[in-house]
Design brief:
Layout (H helix, E strand, L loop, with lengths): L9 E7 L6 H13 L5 E7 L6 H8 L4 E4 L6 H11 L13 E5 L3 E3 L3 H11 L3 E9 L9 E2 L4 H8 L4 H4 L9 H5 L4 E2 L2 E2 L3 E5 H7 L11 H11 L3 E12 L9 H19 L2 H19 L5 H14 L2
Parallel strand pairs: 1-2, 1-4, 2-3, 6-11
Antiparallel strand pairs: 4-10, 5-11, 6-10, 7-9, 8-11
Helix pairs in contact: 5-11, 9-10, 10-12, 11-12
Length: 313
C-alpha cells in the first residue's frame, strides 16, 4: 500500500504519565491546529498508568481522542509501540494505517500551522523518514530541537569540567542557531523526542522503538537505525512548537538519572564501535566517581553507584 492509498494522512500519538497539569492545553492546541488543515487524522493518547486525573480529563474534554490505558508504567517507547501496533505497524498495514505518525509529548503547545508544515515537509522528499519541529520554551526563549549523535565528547560535557563556550556548540552535539532562524528544513542526526513525525515506510522498514530503552535515548536509537537504513532526518524550523519540558521525567530525579545513564550505556553499546564503547565506559565510570565525591543526596549517590557498576561490565 502506498502512502497515497491510506484512509488516514496522519495519526498523532501522545504518551502520558501523570500529566494532568498539561494534557488539556496540549490537546487544545493540537486540535485547534489540526482543524486548520486538510489532513485526515486521528489522535491517540496512551496513558502509562497515571495516578492523577490525566485520563479522566482527556476522556471528559476530548471524547474524540482514542484512549489506550496501560496497566502499569511501561515506559515511553513501549507505550508508543502499543499505539503503533493498533495502527497496523508490525502486523500488516490496513486501512487505518496512516501515511505518517506524529509522536508528540504532552508538555507541548502546537503553534498554528506547525502540524501541516511538518507533514508537508516530510512528504515532499521521498528520502525523508523523520522530521522534527523547532522548539521554544514557554517564555519564548530558544530551545535546542535537534542534535548530533552522542559520543565521547558528550560524556565530557555531562560529567567533566568543560568551558561554557563549548556546551552550546558543535562540540556538544548542537546545531548552530542560525539554522533554526532560516526558512528551510535542515539535515540533522536526530530531533528531540518531543516532536517526531515519521513516514509510514520508514516505520515499516525500521520497526518502532526498542523497548529495552525504558526512558531516554529511545528516539536517538530509532533515528540511528533509520540513518543506517539510508533514511534522511530533518528539523523543520518553520514548524514551531512550545515545549514546556520535564513534566514527567522531572518527577523523580534520582530515578530519572539512573534511567538516563542506563539508556546511554545501552545506546553506546548498540551503536559505537568497540574501541569507543570501551573508552565510553571508562569515562562514565571515572566521571561518576568524581560526581560521587560532591554529592550529599543519598538516593542520587546510590544511582551513581548503580551506573558505575553497570559500566564495569
Amino acid at each position: 500500500m502506498s502512502d497515497a492509498d491510506s484512509a488516514l494522512d496522519l495519526a498523532v500519538v501522545i504518551v502520558t504519565w501523570n500529566n494532568a497539569a498539561v494534557i488539556l492545553p496540549a490537546l487544545q492546541s493540537l486540535t485547534a491546529d489540526l482543524e486548520t488543515t486538510d489532513l485526515r487524522h486521528t489522535i491517540w493518547l496512551v496513558d502509562s498508568a497515571s495516578s492523577d486525573a490525566t485520563v479522566g480529563l482527556a476522556r471528559a474534554h476530548y471524547p474524540q481522542v482514542k484512549l489506550l490505558v496501560c496497566e502499569r508504567n511501561v515506559g515511553f517507547g513501549a507505550a508508543n509501540n502499543r499505539a503503533l501496533r493498533r495502527l497496523g505497524f508490525g502486523g500488516g498495514a490496513n486501512s487505518d494505517t496512516p501515511a505518517a505518525v506524529y509522536l508528540l509529548n504532552p508538555d507541548t503547545l502546537a503553534q498554528p500551522g506547525s502540524t501541516q508544515r511538518l507533514y508537508n515537509t516530510l512528504m515532499s522528499n521521498p528520502q525523508l523518514g523523520l522530521v522534527g519541529a523547532r522548539l521554544s520554551y514557554a517564555d519564548g526563549s530558544f530551545q535546542h530541537s535537534a542534535f548530533r549523535f552522542p559520543g565521547l565528547r558528550q560524556i565530557f560535557c555531562d560529567l567533566y569540567p568543560v568551558p561554557d563556550r563549548l556546551l552550546d556548540g558543535r562540540f556538544n552535539g548542537r546545531y548552530p542557531r542560525w539554522q533554526y532562524a532560516a526558512a528551510a528544513a535542515f539535515a540533522i542526526d536526530f530531533p528531540l523526542g518531543a516532536t517526531m513525525m515519521f513516514k509510514r515506510a520508514a516505520i515499516g522498514q525500521s520497526g518502532g522503538f526498542d523497548e529495552a530503552f525504558f526512558m531516554y535515548c529511545e528516539e536517538v536509537d530509532w533515528a540511528w537505525r533509520l540513518h543506517k537504513l539510508g533514511w534522511r532526518i530533518a528539523c523543520e524550523p518553520r514548524a514551531h512548537v512550545i515545549h514546556l519540558g520535564g513534566q514527567s521525567t522531572g518527577q523523580a530525579a534520582p530515578s530519572s538519572f539512573a534511567h538516563l545513564w542506563r539508556s546511554r550505556l545501552l545506546l553506546f553499546d548498540k551503536h559505537l564501535p568497540g574501541w569507543k564503547r570501551h573508552v565510553a565506559h571508562r569515562l562514565i565510570r571515572h566521571g561518576l566517581r568524581r560526581k560521587l565525591r560532591e554529592l550529599d543526596d543519598a538516593d542520587l549517590a546510590d544511582a551513581c553507584r548503580e551506573i558505575i557498576e553497570l559500566a564495569q561490565r
